[in-house]
Q: What sequence folds into this?
């Protein structure tokens, strides 16, 4: 079964940098694109990163995305990095991709980020 | 500016059919540039993609929900609809509609505020 795995929780202090990983298992994501969302319960999720590393207008450049793993290699991953952490960054972060064999979008399990 | 608004009953009993509507304002739901998606967040769990429509033609469903889900588009009302059959407590969730582009199928750039659906006897 195709799965995107994220750490359930992370924490860091204001001003620090965090990297949230999103690892793919059981499918080849070599040509897939990852997106990242910020979600605060009670609000609408917000698109942060698309096409692995592109920021829509409105996403601060403190947020960056990257993808590791060549086409044809299983177990590739994506990462969301946040620098200069702010208390307002405290939220749940989700990765997502289009899984070709399923013809479906799959989300990672989400990472709850706490800014201490 | 495109806006999405979900509506539907907040409370259902097990075995009933869930029916939700997403009204699109500020843009046409028939635009070939976009897909229209349903996504939910079950209580205490992560985001789960349900399915998508593209105009009135292309529809994809999550494999795990495919047997119980039907999506449709009413172009005259500029609305996207979702039906989930035989609901159980596991279908209790906040349901969102969201737009993605034909270039980036998994990039949901505009979301509704969501509507809470509770399944309880």
A:
């Amino acid at each position: 079964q195709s799965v995107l795995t994220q750490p359930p929780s992370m924490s860091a202090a204001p001003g620090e940098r965090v990297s949230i990983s999103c690892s793919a298992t059981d499918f080849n994501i070599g040509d897939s694109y990852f997106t990242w969302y910020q979600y605060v319960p009670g609000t609408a999720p917000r698109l942060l990163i698309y096409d692995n590393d592109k920021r829509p207008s409105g996403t601060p450049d403190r947020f960056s995305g990257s993808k590791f793993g060549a086409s044809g290699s299983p177990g590739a991953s994506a990462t969301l990095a946040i620098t200069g952490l702010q208390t307002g960054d405290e939220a749940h972060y989700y990765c997502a991709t289009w899984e070709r064999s399923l013809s479906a979008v799959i989300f990672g399990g989400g990472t709850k980020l706490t800014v201490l | 500016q495109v806006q999405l608004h979900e509506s539907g009953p907040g409370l259902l009993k097990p075995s009933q059919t869930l029916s939700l509507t997403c009204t699109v304002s500020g843009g046409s739901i028939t635009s070939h540039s976009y897909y229209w998606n349903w996504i939910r967040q079950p209580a205490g769990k992560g985001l789960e993609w349900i399915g998508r429509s593209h105009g009135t033609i292309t529809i994809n469903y999550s494999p795990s929900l495919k047997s119980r889900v039907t999506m449709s588009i009413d172009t005259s009302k500029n609305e996207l609809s979702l039906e989930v059959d035989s609901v159980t407590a596991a279908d209790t969730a906040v349901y969102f509609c969201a737009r993605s582009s034909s270039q980036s199928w998994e990039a949901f750039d505009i979301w509704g505020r969501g509507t809470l659906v509770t399944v309880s006897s």
Summary: The mean pLDDT of chain A is 90. Residues 35 and 50 of chain A are 4 Å apart (CA to CA). The longest strand of chain A covers residues 91-99. The radius of gyration of chain A is 14 Å.
